[in-house]
């Protein structure tokens, strides 16, 4: 699945996640011990993420 990641600074990018699971990703985002998370093939500081949303396939 392809997702689009929007950051607080206005930047956005897409990443491919083979086994996308929103609940698992939310759990990682809410873990205070984790600073960086892997979203597909991109590593991001979780504090910079504003929104992660699936891209609609046509």
UniProtKB/TrEMBL annotation:
Top-level taxon of origin: Bacteria
Protein name: Uncharacterized protein
């Amino acid at each position: 699945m392809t997702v689009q990641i929007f950051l607080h600074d206005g930047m956005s990018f897409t990443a491919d996640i083979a086994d996308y699971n929103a609940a698992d990703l939310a759990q990682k985002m809410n873990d205070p011990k984790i600073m960086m998370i892997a979203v597909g093939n991109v590593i991001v500081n979780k504090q910079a993420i504003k929104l992660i949303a699936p891209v609609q396939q046509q």
